[in-house]
Design goal:
single chain; 13 strands; alpha+beta; 16% strand; globular; 13 helices; three-stranded antiparallel sheet
Amino acid sequence: MPELSTFPAYDPASLVGTTLDARYLIEEHVATGGMGAVFRARHVYMRKDVALKVLRPDLSASAELVERFRREAEIAASLDHDHIVKVTDFGRSPEGWLFLAMELLFGESLFDRLRRETFLPPAEAVSILRQVCDGLAAAHARGVVHRDLKPENIFLARDAGGAEVAKILDFGIAKMADPASDSATAAGMVVGTPEYLSPEQATGSAVDGRSDLYTLGLIAWRALAGHHPFKADEPRALLMMQATRPVPPLTDARPDLAVHPRLIAIVARACEKDPAARYQTAEEMRLELSGALDSAALAAPPPPPGAPREGPGRSPGATSSTIRFGGPLPSPADPARGARPVAFLRRHPRLAVLVGLLLVAAGGAGATAVVLRSLREARAATAQRD
């Protein structure tokens, strides 16, 4: 390999127009990251466009980083899945450039979308999360734990039909879940991005696929809430939060999402500190997400037999007398306050039937009794008039 001094000053744009390894004509600089740059290139013999990831030349002297780059190629190439970016080639040019060739994707990262949109509608978020679960399930089945999942590493591409397809990128610090593997990280070493570390990673403990699911839970929280659940001025404080502080309920940031209780519960379970309390497989989480957006009435788990219904600002055992779009109806304990609405319902029995059905569905037992009593009285009065 040439001495570093023989490389030109590292300006990614300077590589545009050159042919790397006598095979890849670099046509456009796409992006620059911490380890290098990504280009659109064309294989001169196969006439096929690819994304070419080129390692920064000053990092090529680091055996650890070169090994990480090589491992990314090896692991990603072994994971042939629709929701994992396909890696097609890896090598070093005669000039010393270390490169990785991947399928060329068109779209944007989840990070870029969130930076633009702040947060995602639940249906859009669930679609992305399900696809990522699908990709993780394939990786975990091969014993691969990603360990650095984050919005930057989830790419939202478009297929030939225009449908959005989520792709997992960057398996550079992925780990084979075999403790005997030579690639296992030394005990106590923290790897990953602090905002998205699992408690196991934050403490340098052993990890398995459930670590990725915790991270995916944090990504879901961020995508739905519009910000991270934890904020700190330095990485060490974030590590402490990830290791010890429970992730707050998603409804603390977005009370309106309470209409999707299953989705709230799925995110909460994925974010459990104890791996045993999380989803045990990505496939299990994916299946749960499939029903995450059922209607609020169907999605809410029924209370145990005989258990009182409770809610914010409601004492245990109290009954609801409110429907979301109809306003409060009187309680039998407040006849004076309820005189006018009850009289109105007596004069309009058909409306009383509709309101009664809505209240039964909403669980408003007390107000429902009022409506049904009013309906009976109204029918009796109608019969007398007839």
